[in-house]
């Protein structure tokens, strides 16, 4: 593993790593000591630390996975669709993408994205239903819909479904009763965002053709270094750089510079945001491209993190325009080793930040609000006004007399303070036209505001940065984008369809953010032309 830190990040390493070594934080973490984060966190940590040994404890899965994949291949079943959210989908996406394996990740309730998953060859499809409890509304709705599609196609649906869940969960009981092809249970003493090397990460990846044994081997090769109480421990270095800058550089801008690890930033985004974004503090992960405005002249609260190939010659950091050492962290490693590195480092950063890195106290709020809206089925809130096919909603004090989308967006951006960030939350089809149309919006808004801008696809981000939005520093401004889907997809056994579900999730999230005093502007596009027009408005003039 290679981790380097320069500028303020190097100062944080020098200030904190000797103390971490003296307190034996690395060896205690590897030994699963739950007292590392203080008395208030001890009960949660006691049942959340098994991830430190997964490179060994997950190995019994390997033979069973190889046998199941061979069985499926013999029956011509080689298309893997994963229904899961957050930690159940992000790690498998990284594992499969890095290996070049085909895995259809269904982590959305957008009707068009669900419809696309149903268009594939169902006879050649195995559905992996991945949920710790099985009660997650997105995953349950996806399972019901695809299982019904198997049956409608004349297939034995049970033979096409594999389940990954926690032992003793409602899903395990239901899957066993239904006679699903296989049921895998994961270690219950591992939280979702730390579950990359459990069955949640390994089962869908292995069925898609990933050599998951090599992933475990890579993690095992570096695990001893992460357990060393040494100044050279890369996990301590990264943890100190993330959580120890003073003043805190709390906007962690992650750029991939050819690491070869597919969408690792998206996985690290959840790990950082859910682990640290609480009690009014936290590290905001900002996943960017090569030419991100945030990195042209990083603000004082920005920590640039660059993901590099393991064999790359690391940059010594250079200097900024004033001649000071440029602040930057570079990280390089194998896939399995890098996953384990970030998990250790975030746990260390949590100790430095003084928070419990294993709970997520604010994640449930948006879910509860969405459930309430589904149960009440209230009439849609009328827009304040409509401009060129875009319906505008927001509190009166935010709209403040605006009569155009451009004016409303300007009002929202005007709420950004010198330490603020903008979160774009798009409840749209990320794999369809919306993904292409909105591709330049994040960077353009960052250039306009000269502040960090995150872009999350809903409801996927609710299981990721949603925790930090509500529990982290109250410095964010929120731009919600919704739209009218082309397809209608019913959910068997439910009195709502996917369009109603995603609408309730968006409205519930906006309501909770507003209740907590966060400024939220909601823009609903009624057609594809309106979306293209809106993208142009958002990209707007640079400041």
From TrEMBL:
Q: What is its EC number?
A: 5.3.1.9
Q: Which SUPFAM superfamilies does the record cross-reference, listed alphabetically?
A: SIS domain
Tell me the route in metabolism or biology where this protein functions: Carbohydrate degradation; glycolysis; D-glyceraldehyde 3-phosphate and glycerone phosphate from D-glucose: step 2/4
Q: Record's PROSITE patterns? A: P_GLUCOSE_ISOMERASE_3 (PS51463), SIS (PS51464)
List each copy of the SIS domain by range.
Answer: 68-213
A molecular function GO annotation: monosaccharide binding
Protein's GO biological process: gluconeogenesis; glucose 6-phosphate metabolic process; glycolytic process
Entry's Gene Ontology cellular component terms: cytosol
**Per the record, what are the reactions this protein catalyses?**
alpha-D-glucose 6-phosphate = beta-D-fructose 6-phosphate
Q: Which UniProt keywords apply?
A: Gluconeogenesis, Glycolysis, Isomerase
Fetch the Pfam families from UniProt.
PGI
Q: Which top class of enzyme applies to this chain?
A: isomerase
Q: Origin organism of this chain?
A: Georgenia ruanii
**What is this protein identified as?**
Glucose-6-phosphate isomerase
In the UniProt record, the signal sequence range is none
The entry sums up its family as follows: Belongs to the GPI family.
